[in-house]
Amino acid sequence: TTDTTNYDTAYALAILLAAVYGWQNQSTLLGGIAAVLMLGAIYGHSQGFWAQLWQMTQPYVKELVTAVSRLFQKSDDVAEMADEPYQFSPGKEIESNQFIVTDLQEVGSFGVYAITRTGKSTFLKSFVYQLITQNSPAELQLVISDLKDGLDFRTFRFLKHLSLPIAQTTKESELQINWLLREKERRSELFKAAPKFEPCSNLAEYHELNLSLGLPRLPVIVAIFDEFQNVTLENETALNWLVKLAKEGQGFGIYVVCSTQLPMVEALPTKLKSQFTSWFCGYLANPSDYYKIVQIPKDMWEPFHNAGKIKGRFIANVAGEMMTIQSIYIQAGELKRALRFYSNDHEPPMPEMEPVKPEQDSYTWDGKSNDEKRAMIIKWLTTLKNAPSAEQA
Predict the structure, then answer these.
(1) Which of 18, 245, 316, 362 is 20 to 30 A from 119 in CA distance terms?
(2) What is the pTM of this model?
(3) CA-wise closest residue to 118 among 314, 305, 316
(4) Alpha-carbon distance 70 to 67, whole Å?
(5) Mind listing the pLDDT tens digit for each residue in 379-391?
(6) Closest CA to 261 of 90, 178, 146, 382
């Protein structure tokens, strides 16, 4: 009732203002036009038309404002931009009912663990959506491995932000990891080009120097490996490469995101999990895995698990702070509009690369840690069509 009264008052005020405007200009036509425009604007607001229009045009407006602002930026402004965080929100904290805002520097490389149909893919798509709508391809590049036949991220394959084609097989995913390692080494050489008395041990320091030294600007790279266990269980060398990227990549502006819908202790190597600064854990089938996989205390995982499987609900550890969140859901129409705007008419090419030689023989048993031996056994078991015989065991 209050809303209706407010709009009735607005309509009456609009007619009065239009009449005054027409009288001042001694024109009934101008007064009528002013009345139609104001009444139409008020009606559109009451029906939510303007909010819907803003939602549709927001990505385009942001891109236009960013492009125009850069035309008038001085070199000092560009240097300051290098220090701006790549912000995103993983969702709303349940306890405080407030949205959590973080950035790539704070969250670091992270893991996402949840059984199927709990919102894991939706969480990742929201993450990518926020990054591409806030950062240009010159500032942010993506590498995506989609090992569910490329179906989850099929519509992302033409993105301007992609460095490589989206991987659909383990071999293609291994090539991506290979390329990322080479990119890390290339960036390392660029960092070494800085004068010996100038600090240059991370991407922020590098960008502070690149304007004066004429070095190329380097975009942040976010590498998403969905169903990563398909690669790491099949190839011990690829696992070691992934661990190396997660451990050393952040300083060079390379962040690793590993996601799985098979959250089992056997499929999540400790040496990889230990490199993640943050993680997001959804509903797990086995209650004991909450502690085994990510060491969530019982007083936190028990009510979470007892509440049942809620799509988009995660226990999150953001840079050491643990909380329960409801992830952000991007409407399908909004996601489509963003993808159309930020896409090319072709996929990026896969560069030709020679295979990287493994640091050591992956099949050597001596000198392996217990985790490495366990991974080798799991890899061997996955090659068997039937349960091993007693002699094989």
Answers:
(1) 245
(2) 0.69
(3) 314
(4) 5
(5) 666 555 555 565 5
(6) 146
